[in-house]
Structures are given as structure tokens and as C-alpha cells.
Design goal:
The complex is a heterodimer of chains A (442) and B (320). With 442 residues, chain A is of the alpha/beta class. Chain A is built from 13 helices and 18 strands. With 320 residues, chain B is α/β, with parallel strands linked by helices. The mean pLDDT of chain B is 94. Classes of the chains: A alpha/beta (442), B alpha/beta (320).
């Protein structure tokens, strides 16, 4: 019940996606085939499927057809920050980026820390009628880091994970309790790893660039000590740990080592951390102000390697919209965060697939199958009978990032003007096309 | 928009200008020094220009120095301090700037607590912007007056060994000095407790000293930075007393210097903390020369930003 998306519009016609290159790592499939969607489910995948009566047929030749992309880490800002994004606008931006599902972080105002708030996010997500919006609940009441939220009730209301993201869980004892208590419900604790006593006052990576710019830095160690702590606590408790936005070389190495000894951990790398470095902050570019910060080239290389070898299981955006007034300030006064839903697939295709770091199949794994596994979500597969969440993308489509054309309510992207190769063409959720790229020039 | 003036539209920092430009500012300042010695300290170089001194942080020396420089060049000036202004009422920097611009001004001299604020302003208004200190980033006119003072006393900058002593981590003065000194061919040292040195400082091309005795042994000039009381409260140093014992510039330490040491301090001084009174008031100190040079350097910067050329400075002084 908790994973349903209410579809209340006109009856669905069957949809046949014909002749695309179908990539589904969950069934080890990479072949030119057809995919038939019927009544919100994957009906069949195979060669030469015929369209049932009344079916829509989409010619997918030259395109990739894969399980719908899932973003485990987005900030939709509702309630309380509707001038930045709403659940509806964020869902539309997600669809335009090729995502069929997103996980909404709970650091809203007020925070999503009780079952009613979880229910609100879920209901608004359904009302938006676009991509699936999965609520994530807080670890601690009011994100104050003092006592656990009603985790069981929030799970009943639809929460798929808990996190105090935006803030770390500073109290190690509370983190231990969260990892232990969630074992009953089978959901992960997603951790924003930051030791505040080491990061306080910082606005960017600590290093040569911060020294030159005169900006207080955030050292890698601020992230590393928390990653180390949480890995140890996961090992102690057997609780499922999901480490968000890993940015450091030591962090990647520690997660790799923990996985090798069987710790129950998954982790994220973001498109901005595998694409940019602290040098991109030069000129006091507030669009590049993000937490955790853009690190050095060596850290970026480690994130890329982590995504490539699966140490970082998933690519997640940490989509963090801000109103332009908020970013139009002196660097240290501007808030952290950048938006990523509408650039993630293009960046992953350009920076990782285009440069030979990932195969297309691995990319689909990192952006669909692995996220589904990490948060135990439906989707992430084209197996017959599963939800008809499908992304169709063109790996050869050349485009230039123009934030003015984003469907997100915000424009705070550091990628404006980037030339990318590869973009979503169609996003299908529950068998319904929720977004399709306008054909340029007829 | 192109700015064919010698310095460009703005002076944001010394990192962004050339050695040639720095030398020309110093030469122009040299020519302008004499104006302040006259009984009638006024020349019409900036007559009819409107300059706003926009200070988001408390400042006495820098603000007054700029104001004297502006008035001696006949500019019309307005001072805005953050407290008691629209800034306190929540107005953004962009809006403050746009409102000033709408009143048709020519230049803004700004001090702001955020690094990068000067550049931020300069990119958004057509007026010339002079950075009078932005966060921990740069304080270019302070470094220029330090350079001028060293040059006055030693005849050159090139080959000089200058050690910046104290809270480099939080210091825009240190950063501007490092860029200026390196560009003019000086060797630069820094000396401070490691808690007050920024990450990667060695990579800027400076020598790091952990002991003040070693720094004094090495240096031709010491630029002693103020240790702010807040640094002790934040735990960067355990006590002012200990700081003075370990890093303070005392007469005993200065007397052991192998060379005739120049002592600079950008002020305001904490006597008995980073510098002892008998050094501040002693024969090696050029601290008040720095203050005098400050006015000349700022006159030079304003003149050059307003379209003046270094070669014309001498003549400009004598126009009526």
C-alpha cells in the first residue's frame, strides 16, 4: 500500500516501445528489443512484440530504454520553501531529467518528522501526478539530534528511509539507536556525514583555493571522521547505513574497505562532485557553493573511481533549489546547495560514459537498479509484472544547459552553458508518459 | 564595457593586477605625497566626482585615510556605515548598490565582512569600486602602503625578505601583502602558531616559520599583524599572555636581529600582545610612516581609477 501512486486520470492505453536498445542490469539484458507496457505494468520484453489493439507505439530506435531512473536525494522544499520548489515543480523537474521516482529529504520547514507530515509529502506527490515521490522522515524530532522520531509510524505512512540530512546526527549514541531501531522496519538510515566542530564557519573546501579566496574552509576530515564513525556504528548494530554525497578520497576508501568486510552500507556520489572541483568556486561563484563542498581533483577522481567500481552504489543529485535572491549575495552569505535533477543524466553520460568510466549498463545500474535496492523501492527493473516505470534516453543528443528552460522553480545550477551529450527523451511512470522531450525543429 | 584606464574599472586586490601596475601606483603615490604637506591640502584632480565610502565593518584608520585622500583630491564624499543604515533594516548588498548607483555616483570605496564582496559589487555596478577590505580576502590599499613604506626606507622591494607575523589565517592584509611582495620580487615569510596559518600556505610560495626568533633572524622587515581578542576566545591561541611570550615582537628579540630590521604594523596595535611598546615606539618602527603613506596611496588609486595616468600625476597636482 505504501508504494502506490494514485493514478486517477483517463484509462491507460497499452504502450509499445519499439526497437530501442533495452538495458536492464537487473535481468542482465542489453539488446535491441521491444518493451510492452500494459495496465501500469511491464507486460513483456522481447523481440518482435506486436502492439495490442488500441496501443500507442513509440519508435525507440537509436534510443536507450531502461528501468526508470531513481534519485534517492532531492530537496523539494515543501512545506515552507515553496518559493524555491514545490513537490509538484520538483516532480516535473525530475520527470524532465528522466527520473521516474525521487526521495524527498525531510529538512523542510517544518521538518518531516511525524507520520502526518510524511503523509502530506506522499499525498502531494500523488496529487502532482508526475513521478513517484517517496517521503523520507527525520531521524530526530525537529532535526534537533536529541530523540528518535516515530519511525515505525512514519514507515506506515510511507517513509522509505530516515535522515537528518542537511544536518548530521552529531550524537553518536543517537545514531546508534537509529541504526538499531530501524532494523525492525528494514529501512536504511541515510547519513549526512559532517563533524560540525570541524566544518563550522566553512563555506568551501579547505585548501589552496580557499586560502587564496580568503574563505573559511571545510577540511576533508570533517566528512571522514563521520563516515568512519557511522561505518563502525553500522557494524556494531547491523543497521543499514546509507552514506549520502561522499566527496573525499579517504571516505571512498573507507566505504570500500567496510563493504569488503561485510558492513551493511550503501553510498552516493553526486554529479557535481564527479564533475567539478574547488577550482570551480573561483570568482566566488555562489552556484558552486554546496555542502559537502566541491573538493580537489584527487577527491573528484576518487569519487569517479568509487562510482565506477560500485563503492558508491548510486548516483544521486542532492537537488537543492534556492531562490536567486538567496544566491545573489557575497559567497559566504549565500546558502549551500545546487540543483541537479535536470542535468544529472546528461552529466553522467558525458562525464562517466562519454569518458569511458562507466558502461551504459553500469550507468543504468547506478541510477536505477542500485537506488531501488538501497532503499528497497519498487522499480529498478523491467522484469515482467513490475511497475511500468521506464526511462527512454538518447545517449547522443547534444545539448547546452540553459537553466532558464528548467522546469524546476529554481535556477541555481553551476552547469549553465555546459555542453552535454545525452538526455532523457521520455519518462514513463506506471505506464503513463509523464514527460516527453519536445522535438526541436520538427 | 571596456575600461581603458590604467588600472581598469576597479581595484579588488593585488592578486589581479600586474607588477607594473603596482609600481605605477607606488610612483603616483610618491608624487602625491607632497600635497598633504601643503598648507592648503587640496588639488582639483577629482573635482565633481562623487565617492561613496560604504563601510559594513567598523574602521577608523582606513575610512579616515580614504576620506582625506578623496577630499584632498576635491571629490564629493558621502560616508555610509552599516549600523543605522538601510543595511541594518535588511537591505541586500545588491539593493544598496543599485540605490546608490541610481543617485549617479562615480566610485564606491567598500569594506565588507564577506570575502569576495568587493568583486561581487564591482560586477554589478558601473561605478569604480575600491576594495577597502573584504573578509579575509584582500585589503589592497593597505598592502600598497606597506610596500611604499618599505620602498621609502630601503629604496627597493626586490630581494627584500619580508616576514608577515601573526594571524595570517584571518588576515586580508596578509594575503594582499603576499601577492604584492611576490610580484615585486621580494621573498616572503609567514610566522604564526599553526592554528593561525591557512591550509596550503606554503604552496603560495612563502616560507613558513614556526619560531619568531627564526623569522627575525631571516627577515629584513617584519609586518606584525594584530591578534584579535576573538581569536583567543575561539581557542586559536590559549591566552594573549602566552601569545606574547611565544610570538610577541619584543625588544630582546628585535635586538638579536642580524640586520637593521624594519617593523611595520597595519594597526590598530595591541601593545603587549603581538608587539611590545618599546618596539612599536622604537627606532625600527615605521608604523606612523605607513599611516602617512596610506593617504598618498589612496589618492593614487583614486586618481588612476578615475582615468588618470601615472605620467600625468605630477602635472595633475598643479592644475587649478
Amino acid at each position: 500500500m505504501k508504494h502506490e501512486v494514485a493514478v486517477t486520470r483517463a484509462p491507460l492505453r497499452p504502450l509499445l516501445l519499439q526497437g530501442g536498445r533495452v538495458i536492464d542490469p537487473s535481468t542482465d539484458l542489453d539488446d535491441v528489443q521491444d518493451v510492452l507496457l500494459h495496465e501500469g505494468r511491464i507486460e513483456a520484453v522481447g523481440r518482435g512484440l506486436s502492439a495490442p489493439d488500441g496501443a500507442d507505439v513509440f519508435d525507440a530506435s537509436g534510443l536507450i530504454v531502461c528501468p526508470g531512473l531513481i534519485d534517492l536525494h532531492v530537496h523539494l522544499r515543501e512545506p515552507g520553501g515553496e518559493h524555491r520548489e514545490t513537490i509538484a515543480s520538483g516532480a516535473r523537474a525530475a520527470a524532465a531529467g528522466g527520473f521516474a521516482a525521487v526521495c524527498a529529504m525531510p529538512n523542510t520547514d517544518p521538518p518531516i518528522d511525524d507520520p502526518a507530515a510524511v503523509g502530506f509529502v506522499r499525498a502531494e506527490g500523488m496529487r502532482a501526478g508526475s513521478v513517484r515521490v517517496y517521503p523520507v522522515g527525520c531521524v530526530s524530532v525537529g532535526q534537533k539530534g536529541e530523540r528518535l522520531t516515530q519511525i515505525g509510524e512514519m514507515v506506515d505512512a510511507g517513509a522509505v528511509a530516515i535522515t537528518d540530512d542537511g544536518l548530521p546526527v552529531s550524537d553518536a549514541g543517537l545514531m546508534r539507536l537509529a541504526l538499531e531501531y530501524t532494523r525492525t522496519f528494514g529501512i536504511p538510515v541515510a547519513s549526512h556525514c559532517e563533524e560540525l566542530s570541524l566544518s563550522r564557519g566553512g563555506s568551501m573546501n579547505e585548501g589552496l583555493v580557499s586560502t587564496r579566496l580568503g574563505i573559511t574552509g571545510i577540511p576533508n576530515a570533517a566528512e571522514d571522521v563521520m563516515i568512519a564513525r557511522d561505518l563502525l556504528l553500522s557494524e556494531l548494530t547491523g543497521g543499514r547505513l546509507h552514506i549520502q554525497h561522499v566527496t573525499t578520497r579517504r571516505g571512498v576508501a573507507m566505504i570500500r574497505e567496510a563493504k569488503a568486510r561485510g558492513v551493511s552500507v550503501t553510498a552516493e556520489g553526486t554529479p557535481h562532485h564527479f564533475t567539478l572541483t574547488d577550482a570551480d568556486v573561483e570568482g566566488y561563484r555562489t552556484e558552486a557553493k554546496v555542502n559537502p563542498p566541491l573538493r580537489t581533483a584527487a577527491d573528484r577522481a576518487a569519487v569517479i573511481e568509487g562510482v565506477a567500481d560500485g563503492t558508491l552504489d548510486v548516483i544521486a543529485t542532492d537537488h537543492a533549489p534556492h531562490h536567486y535572491d538567496e544566491k545573489e549575495q557575497a559567497f559566504e552569505d549565500a546558502p549551500f546547495g545546487l540543483i541537479g535533477l535536470e542535468t544529472a543524466l546528461g552529466l553522467a553520460l558525458t562525464e562517466l560514459v562519454g569518458k569511458g568510466v562507466l558502461t551504459l549498463s553500469r550507468l543504468v545500474d547506478r541510477m536505477s537498479c542500485a537506488p531501488a535496492r538501497a532503499f528497497a523501492l519498487p522499480g529498478g527493473t523491467l522484469r515482467a509484472g513490475s511497475d511500468a516505470d521506464v526511462t527512454v534516453f538518447d545517449p547522443a543528443l547534444d545539448w547546452v544547459v540553459e537553466p532558464a528552460r528548467f522546469l524546476s522553480r529554481s535556477r541555481n545550477s553551476p552547469f549553465a552553458g555546459f555542453h552535454l551529450r545525452g538526455a532523457a527523451v521520455r519518462t514513463i511512470v506506471g505506464g503513463r508518459v509523464v514527460w516527453e522531450r519536445a522535438r526541436e525543429g520538427g | 564595457m571596456t575600461h581603458p584606464t590604467f588600472l581598469g574599472k576597479d581595484l579588488i586586490g593585488l592578486a589581479a593586477i600586474s607588477a607594473e601596475q603596482i609600481r605605477a601606483i607606488l610612483d603616483t603615490a610618491e608624487a602625491f605625497k607632497e600635497i598633504s604637506e601643503r598648507p592648503i591640502k587640496k588639488v582639483p584632480v577629482l573635482r565633481g566626482k562623487t565617492i561613496v565610502n560604504l563601510f559594513f565593518e567598523a574602521s577608523t584608520r582606513t575610512r579616515v585615510s580614504f576620506e582625506f585622500a578623496e577630499k584632498r583630491l576635491s571629490a564629493d564624499t558621502v560616508n555610509i556605515a552599516a549600523s543605522g543604515s538601510s543595511v541594518q533594516k535588511g537591505e541586500t548588498l545588491v539593493d544598496t548598490a543599485r540605490n546608490l548607483e541610481a543617485m549617479k555616483i562615480d566610485m564606491v570605496v567598500m569594506r565588507h565582512p564577506s570575502s569576495g564582496a568587493a568583486r561581487f559589487l564591482a560586477e554589478r555596478i558601473p561605478s569604480n569600486v575600491v576594495n577597502a577590505g573584504d573578509g579575509r580576502h584582500e585589503h589592497p590599499t593597505q598592502a600598497l602602503l606597506d610596500l611604499l613604506t618599505i620602498r621609502d626606507h630601503r629604496g627597493r622591494i626586490e630581494g627584500m625578505r619580508v616576514c608577515i607575523l601573526g594571524d595570517v589565517l584571518h588576515s586580508r592584509v596578509a594575503r594582499s601583502n603576499i601577492w604584492g611582495l611576490l610580484k615585486l620580487g621580494a621573498e616572503v615569510g609567514v610566522c604564526a602558531p599553526r592554528t593561525l596559518l591557512p591550509a596550503g600556505i606554503e604552496e603560495l610560495g612563502v616560507t613558513v616559520f614556526s619560531h619568531v626568533e627564526d623569522a627575525i633572524e631571516w627577515a629584513d622587515a617584519l609586518n606584525v599583524l594584530r591578534l584579535q581578542l576573538e581569536r583567543m576566545q575561539a581557542g586559536y591561541v590559549p591566552s594573549l599572555r602566552e601569545y606574547n611570550r611565544v610570538f610577541g615582537v619584543s625588544r630582546e628579540r628585535v635586538e638579536r636581529a642580524p640586520r637593521d630590521l624594519l617593523i611595520l604594523h597595519p594597526g590598530p596595535m595591541n601593545r603587549g600582545v603581538e608587539i611590545d611598546s618599546d618596539v612599536a615606539d622604537g627606532p625600527h618602527s615605521v608604523i606612523l610612516d605607513q599611516v602617512t603613506n596610506g593617504v598618498a596611496v589612496r589618492m593614487a588609486v583614486l586618481y588612476l581609477l578615475a582615468g588618470g595616468v601615472p605620467e600625468r600625476a605630477e602635472a595633475a597636482k598643479h592644475e587649478a
